[in-house]
Input
Amino acid sequence: MPGEHPRHPGHRVVHVHRTHSGLHGPEDRLRRRHHPRPARQRRPHPGHRPHFTRIFPPHIRKAITARDQGCAFPACTIPATWCEAHHITYWSHGGPTGTDNGTFLCSHHHHLIHKENWTIQVKTGIPWFIPPPHIDPHQKPRRNHDRT
Ligand SMILES: [Zn+2]
Output
């Protein structure tokens, strides 16, 4: 009877595999065995889209090093190699991962900025630190004068 499965009379033949052709064909299965994680390998390099990654890529770290030379917090002398790149406008608030939104802070000052809620503004290439009201009621901006 036409439309019946040849080995299972009474079962209708339904071509469910039609849309899978090319995805689950024998050649593809073979390729998959050799490259078990093709999707991961095809993922674009994060450095190509620096503003979409939370980690500062090397060329931006280099630009920040040239500008800040080390921890940018007032009176701190910790060199850049020991510093962490900090998002001036937090990544979680939509701040980009770029030179203008990054500054170097040593581990101590990085924690302090977050804990005490300091504000940082980059003006003409110099990071200025604005203390929270409970540290300075006038919130006078200050900078690290040890850096040029
Ligand atoms: Zn510091």
